[in-house]
Amino acid sequence: MTKPLSKADYSPTGVTVHHDPARLTRVVRALRAAGRNIALVPTMGALHAGHRKLIREAQVMQNTVVVVSVFVNPLQFGPNEDLARYPRALESDVDICREERVGIVFAPSVEDMYPFGTNVSISPGALGNELEGATRPGHFDGVLTVVAKLFNIVGPTYAVFGEKDYQQLTLVHRMARELNFPLDVVGVPTVREHDGLALSSRNRFLSAEERQTAVGLSAALVAGAHVSAQGPEAVLKTARDTLAAVPGIDLDYLELRAPDLGPAPEKGDARLLVAARVGTTRLIDNAAVLLGDGDD
C-alpha cells in the first residue's frame, strides 16, 4: 500500500523543493499510483525564458505533475571549462518555478547525485565525439549519465529538452530508445531574443558589445537557410561568409548534418549547427534547413 503524501512531499497548490533522490522517488511513485503523469524538465538552473517555454510545454501534457531538476552536473564539464563560473541561483529558480506552477523542484547536491562516486558512466557512441564532443571530450558521457540517473530517480512519462542543445537532444533520444527507458523525449524549439540571439544561461557573461557580436551566430543560420534551395555548399558558404563578416566571433565549427546528425543529404531536411566563442563565452546554435536543387 502506498503511503499517503504529506504537504512536505507534494502540494497541488504550490512548488515543493526536494533534495534527496530516494525521497523524491517515493513521492513520484505515489503520484503515478494516483494516476498522475510525470513530466521532467532537466536543467542546470539559472532559469530564463527558454526554460519557461520548456515548463509550459510540459504543463500542457495530460494530467501531469511537472518536475524541474536544477543540478550543475560536474561530469559534463572538462578540466578547462567553466564549472565554477556557471551561474547558480536556486532561490530565483524556485521563484520562477512557482510562477510557472511547477509541482516539484529537484535540487540535489553533487553528493546526493553521486553518492558512490562516478566510476560508471554511459557512452554516447561515435556521435558523442563529434561536433560538441570533438571540442569537449567526455561531455556527453557526463550528460547521458546524469540524464539516465534523473530518468531512474523521477521515472517520468515525458522528458522535455530544448532544441538549442540539438546534439544533446539527439543523443538523449537515442539513449532512451536503445536503453528501453519507458518515456517520451519531447523536443521544444529554441526561444530567441527579438534580434534572433538564442536564449542561454551563458548570455549573462556577454558584455553589451559582445552581446551584439553574438547575434552573428543566428544571423549566419538565417542566411544559410535563405539559400538552402541552392544546396549544401551554398548554405555552408553563405553562413561562413556571414560569420567572417562579424569581428569578434572565434568559430569552433559550422556543420550541416542530417536531422539525426548523420551526413547531410543533398536534398531534404537537414540541420545547420554552429559553435563559437565571443570573448570568453562559448555559444552554440542551430537551425533546421530544407535543402533543394534550386530548380523548382
Describe this structure in words.
- It is a single chain.
- The protein is an alpha/beta fold.
- The protein folds into 2 domains: 16-188, Rossmann fold; 203-291, 2-Layer Sandwich (Pantoate--beta-alanine Ligase, Chain: A,domain 2), CATH 3.30.1300.
- Helix content is 35%, strand content 21%.
- The protein has 9 helices and 9 strands.
- The strands form 2 sheets. Strands 1-4-3-2-5-6 form a 6-stranded parallel beta sheet, with helices on both faces. Strands 7-8-9 form a 3-stranded antiparallel beta sheet, with helices on one face.
- α6 (139-154) packs across α7 (166-178).
- The chain is globular, with a radius of gyration of 20 Å.
- It is an enzyme of class 6 (ligase).
- InterPro entries: Pantoate_ligase (IPR003721), Pantoate_ligase_C (IPR042176), Rossmann-like_a/b/a_fold (IPR014729).
- Pfam families: Pantoate_ligase.
- It is found in: Cytoplasm.
- Keywords: ATP-binding, Cytoplasm, Ligase, Nucleotide-binding, Pantothenate biosynthesis.
Taking pLDDT < 50 over at least 5 consecutive residues as the criterion, the unreliable ranges are: none
Choose one word for the global shape. Answer: globular
From the 3D coordinates, which CATH architecture of the largest domain would you assign? Answer: 3-Layer(aba) Sandwich
How many strands, which pairing sense, and closed or not: the largest β-sheet? 6 strands, parallel
Return the average pLDDT rounded to an integer: 96
Number of DSSP strand runs: 9
Q: Determine the fraction of residues in helical runs and give it as a percent range.
A: 25-40%
Task: State the CATH class of the largest domain.
Answer: Alpha Beta
Secondary-structure-based class equals alpha/beta
- Cα-to-Cα separation, first versus last residue: 64 Å
CATH-assigned homologous superfamily of the largest domain: HUPs
Q: H/E series, N to C?
A: EHEHEHEHHHEHEHHEEE
**How do the strands line up in the largest sheet?**
1-4-3-2-5-6
* Count of helical stretches: 9
Q: Within the CATH hierarchy, at the fold level, what is the topology of the largest domain?
A: Rossmann fold
Strand percentage lies at 15-25%
> How many discrete structural domains?
2
Cα-based radius of gyration, to the nearest Å: 20 Å
Keywords: ATP-binding, Cytoplasm, Ligase, Nucleotide-binding, Pantothenate biosynthesis
Organism: Umezawaea tangerina
Function: Catalyzes the condensation of pantoate with beta-alanine in an ATP-dependent reaction via a pantoyl-adenylate intermediate.
Binding site for ATP: 44-51, 162-165, 191, 199-202
